[in-house]
């Protein structure tokens, strides 16, 4: 909502229409009056118009730098968000891999248990021995479970 108000800037009144509050606009005018008074007292040869132009240039410089900083911050935030998304994707893939490895480990444990069930009870045999024997049997075209060609 537009507010109509009058501000007093360096001995002149200005009628304004603004979305800002009267208090905020008065604080801005007071700061501008202070800057103008400081500049005019430090450089007696300046006119009010020259002081206003220099202050406007300073304010525009601050505005331009602030906009550049905002753009840099936006770029950094976008980079951080992109990196976070990539890390989230990598974490999800690692989680899926871990689940697949866990499922494979369960399958291998079941297979090992099944293979051990075919071994004589008093014979101690390692998984390495079972695999070696299965490879040998396969090379000789034998079944690892005692059936098929021998």
Task: Write a compact overview of the structure shown.
The protein has 150 residues and is mainly α. It is built from 3 helices and 2 strands; from the N terminus they run ββααα. Helices cover 69% and strands 9% of the residues.
What is the helix/strand order? EEHHH
Overall helicity: 55-70%
Number of domains: 3
Residue fraction in strands = 5-15%
Whole-number average pLDDT?
Answer: 88
Q: Please, could you describe this protein's structure?
A:
- This protein is 69% helix and 9% strand.
- The relative contact order is 0.04.
- The chain has three domains: 1-46, 2-Layer Sandwich (Double Stranded RNA Binding Domain), CATH 3.30.160; 47-111; 118-150, no CATH class.
- The model has no long low-confidence stretch (mean pLDDT 88).
- With 150 residues, the protein is mainly alpha-helical.
- A hairpin with a 2-residue loop joins β1 and β2 (12-18).
- It starts with a strand and ends in an 11-residue tail after the last helix.
- Strands 1-2 form a two-stranded antiparallel sheet.
What is the element layout, followed by pairings?
Elements: E1 3-9, E2 12-18, H1 22-42, H2 48-117, H3 127-139
Antiparallel strand pairs: 1-2
Helix pairs in contact: 1-2
Summary keywords:
mainly alpha; 3 domains; single chain; 3 helices; rod-shaped; 150 residues; Double Stranded RNA Binding Domain; two-stranded antiparallel ribbon
């Amino acid at each position: 909502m537009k507010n109509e108000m009058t501000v007093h800037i360096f001995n002149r009144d200005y009628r304004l229409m603004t979305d800002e509050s009267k208090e905020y606009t008065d604080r801005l005018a007071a700061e501008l009056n202070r800057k103008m008074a400081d500049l005019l007292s430090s450089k007696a040869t300046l006119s009010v118009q020259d002081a206003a132009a220099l202050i406007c240039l300073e304010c525009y410089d601050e505005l331009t730098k602030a906009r550049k900083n905002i753009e840099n911050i936006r770029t950094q935030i976008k980079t951080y968000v992109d990196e976070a998304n990539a890390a989230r994707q990598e974490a999800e893939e690692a989680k899926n891999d871990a689940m697949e490895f866990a499922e494979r480990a369960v399958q291998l444990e079941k297979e090992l248990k099944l293979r051990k069930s075919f071994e004589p009870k008093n014979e101690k045999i390692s998984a390495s021995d079972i695999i070696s024997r299965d490879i040998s049997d396969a090379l000789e075209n034998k079944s690892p479970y005692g059936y098929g060609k021998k």
